[in-house]
Amino acid sequence: MLVVAILGTTTMFGQGLGASLDYAMWNGTMIENSETSGSTILAVNYTHNLSEKMNLVGSVGYGMGFGVVPMKADLNYGITNKLSTNLGIGLYMIDNETYDANAIGVDGEEASTNEFGINLGLSYQVTSSISLGFNYNMIKSGDYDFNGMQFGLSYAFGGKSTDSKKDIEKK
């Protein structure tokens, strides 16, 4: 995170840098005896523009409460200028005693608490820098399921300026 923060101060990298604060509600048999099933996730993200309506968004976060470190890569498609949808993959590093106790390894081996998953969601752009989002994270299914819903607020540090090229040309 320190490297991302340092590189984010440069103009080239800082254009797509953002931060988000999310609340995730986890459910499933893997955490059914857990004292807490929610995480407050603080994350940094970087948006790379692929085309006029498509962006690639990479993020890494730290979850407090139910301990989880999500690292995600999403394709974000702009439906309108305010509404977009995303689909992506992620690695979720889980640090919770209840999850460890319910994990089942193969051939007597200790189970991994690093899980791959798919996420999908919607985002609403409130201003040029602030957006509200909802994601559904599908991490495990079957007898030992683990999934979650995530609601959040994002801020883009390199948000688009309200001055367009036309305004600059008029000056």
Q: How are strands sequenced across the largest beta sheet?
A: 1-2-3-4-5-6-7-8
Order of helices and strands: HHEEEEEHEEEH
Distance between the termini: 40 Å
- Percent helix among the residues? 10-25%
Radius of gyration, taken over Cα atoms and rounded to an integer in Å? 18 Å
Q: Give the overall shape, derived from the CA principal axes.
A: elongated
Mean pLDDT: 82
Short recap of the structure:
The chain is mainly β.
Key traits:
171 residues, elongated
Give a description of the structure.
The chain starts with a helix and ends with a helix. The relative contact order is 0.20. It has an eight-stranded antiparallel β-barrel with strand order 1-2-3-4-5-6-7-8. It has 171 residues and is mainly β. Helices cover 13% and strands 55% of the residues. Strand 7 (130-140) and strand 8 form a beta hairpin. It has helices at 2-7, 11-14, 97-102, 165-170, and strands at residues 17-27, 38-49, 54-65, 67-78, 83-95, 114-125, 130-140, 146-156.
Question: What is the element layout, followed by pairings?
Answer:
Blueprint lengths: L1 H6 L3 H4 L2 E11 L10 E12 L4 E12 L1 E12 L4 E13 L1 H6 L11 E12 L4 E11 L5 E11 L8 H6 L1
